């Protein structure tokens, strides 16, 4: 059942419309839990598209196993997706810095307020993100420390590789996840892949995890896999180390994504394609696992190259 969450007229007879698809049991009792699955806050984040498709397809083929209400929002920023733009086009505005929004505000704030209003009352929300076009990420959940006790039990069911629990950051105050978590809807922000791409392997992994979670909370009675046990950054006192470029040029990686690395190993080189010289020979500062790797080769001084999860893995 497709419903309109937000709609507004635009210039030149155009319209912006945010839609959701509600899947519910054939016979409702009135006591069903509701889970919301959202994606596409950033127009260049496409990894969630395959997951939405796959979840809807599997549920439609097995409606007898659905024991709750699933609301799927495949594109919260349809203008960005249509125009291959991360933010809201023309405004150059990051929608995920507009929450909880305001019905008295501009278009973005109004849309944000309607989205929050529509999701409130859900038992749980899963917020699917990709990385941007510059970085590749393994499937992971990120959460701030103050929400860890509430969210970790859910995150561990999502068939993930990694859960990154990190200190509070002020920038998260305006995200959808923060707005919902502070208003009584546990919301898990999932990150994976890279921008403007769909990695089917990651999509299948997270889709299986979502069904595991739905089964655990009594909303799915079909068979599920045994989910992976993720590495949790806060368990075992593992540090996340970030390595940034100290020169500008073309980055040529010497490591692979989600592979282990030793202190002193070569991460890669930043080369000068005009002079044929190496501008920076990048060396690993610690042992660990590369869970974020630069995907876009052009780098400037200060660009993030890798994130390394330290410790024995």
Automatic annotation (TrEMBL):
Its cofactor is Zn(2+). SUPFAM superfamilies: Zn-dependent exopeptidases. The keyword Hydrolase applies. Pfam families: AstE_AspA_cat (PF24827). InterPro entries: AstE_AspA_cat, N-alpha-Ac-DABA_deacetylase. GO terms for molecular function: hydrolase activity, acting on ester bonds; metal ion binding. Keywords: Hydrolase, Metal-binding, Zinc. Residues 33-216 form the Succinylglutamate desuccinylase/Aspartoacylase catalytic domain. It comes from the Bacteria. The keyword Hydrolase applies. This is Succinylglutamate desuccinylase/Aspartoacylase catalytic domain-containing protein. It comes from Anaerocolumna cellulosilytica.
């Amino acid at each position: 059942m497709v419903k309109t969450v937000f709609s507004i007229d635009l210039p030149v007879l155009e319209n912006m419309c945010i839609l959701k698809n509600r899947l519910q049991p054939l016979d409702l009792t009135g006591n069903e839990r509701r889970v919301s699955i959202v994606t596409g806050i950033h127009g260049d984040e496409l990894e969630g598209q395959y997951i939405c498709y796959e979840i809807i397809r599997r549920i439609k083929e097995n409606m007898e196993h659905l024991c709750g209400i699933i609301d799927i929002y495949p594109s919260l920023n349809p203008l960005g997706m249509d125009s291959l733009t991360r933010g809201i086009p023309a405004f150059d505005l990051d929608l995920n810095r507009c929450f909880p929004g305001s019905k008295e505000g501009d278009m973005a704030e109004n849309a944000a307020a309607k989205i929050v209003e529509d999701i409130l009352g859900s038992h749980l929300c899963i917020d699917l993100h990709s990385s941007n076009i510059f970085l590749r990420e393994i499937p992971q959940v990120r959460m701030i420390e103050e929400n860890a006790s509430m969210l970790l039990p859910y995150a561990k069911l999502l068939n993930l590789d990694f859960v990154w629990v990190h200190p509070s950051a002020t920038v998260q105050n305006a995200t959808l996840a923060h707005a919902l978590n502070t208003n009584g809807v546990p919301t898990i922000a999932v990150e994976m892949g890279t921008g403007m791409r769909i990695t089917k392997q990651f999509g299948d992994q997270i889709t299986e995890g979502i069904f595991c979670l739905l089964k655990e909370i009594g909303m799915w009675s079909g068979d599920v896999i045994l989910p992976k046990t993720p590495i949790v950054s806060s368990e075992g006192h593992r540090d996340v180390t970030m390595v940034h470029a100290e020169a500008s040029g073309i980055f040529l990686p010497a490591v692979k994504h989600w592979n282990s690395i030793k202190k002193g190993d070569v991460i890669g080189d930043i080369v000068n394609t005009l002079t044929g010289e190496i501008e920076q020979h990048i060396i690993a500062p610690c042992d660990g696992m590369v869970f974020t790797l630069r995907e876009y080769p052009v780098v400037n001084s200060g660009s993030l190259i890798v994130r390394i999860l330290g410790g024995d893995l």
